[in-house]
Amino acid sequence: MRSVTFEGVFPILVTPFDDEGDLDLASFDRTIRFMADIGVDGVTIIGVLGESNRMKDSEREELIRTAVFAADDRIPVIVGTSHSGTEVTRDLSQMAESLGAGGVMVTPSHEPVPNEGCIFDYFAQVAEGISIPVVVQDHPASTQVHMSVDLLLRLVNEIELVSCIKEEAVPTPPKITNLLNGMTGRTVSILTGLGALYGGFDLARGSHGFMTGFAFPEVLIAMVRSARQKQFDKVNELYHRYLPLIVFEQQPGVAVRKEIFRLRGLIKTSTVRHPGANIDAHTNERLADLLNSILPDTNLTKPLEI
Q: Which is catalytic among the residues 56, 166, 175, 234?
């Protein structure tokens, strides 16, 4: 297995289900292959918006096996393994590694009494059980856990397997700056999440790319390419053009994103596993209007030419 460089674009993928709510592994395989074809730097599966909290362990195993097989060593597969229990997170991470994952994405769970020492121990114990990179997900909106810059820097400095911070604690731009300035010894990559909602601002502050679920990764690839060339006028042009779609897709839940994946021909249905809500008729109509406005006369099933 090749080493993972956490720079560029690592889309967080939806988990496809059929009309009955069962895994649709054929659609998942197709999605992985499409992502590799358009030139992403890796994919991330079984994240929060991959409906990880609605997965059985046996289903996680099926998804990882399918993803690693479809990726065929063209791109690394990063697996979300977070759980409220440290031992379970370690076990899930070990399973991901044994099945060929290139890394794991881990975030702590909320506890009644905040304790950053306990959070550090959580990551340390998970890392002790594996030998693949760990992505630290800093996403208070879903976890209710606020990790300070000092804690994140301690994780970087003291846990060798911590290889990337997925920064989603708003306001993200100043936190990215503080993290980069604080990495005076060991340095790791910082990737932007939150559906690319603050992507233009984050790239200007030094983000190394995206680990997020926007359904048009081609746009994110073009933004990162422009940022690397210091062409921030181009970054802003792309950001502003697609921002209405980014915002619309960021509505709570995953129904809108799954519908776009369906329209792109990647998954057969946009079914969200119960008790999650499926897309309603009015939202679907508004999505169609938005896509027609931003991407007129575009075959969404083909890679976008940016």
A: 166
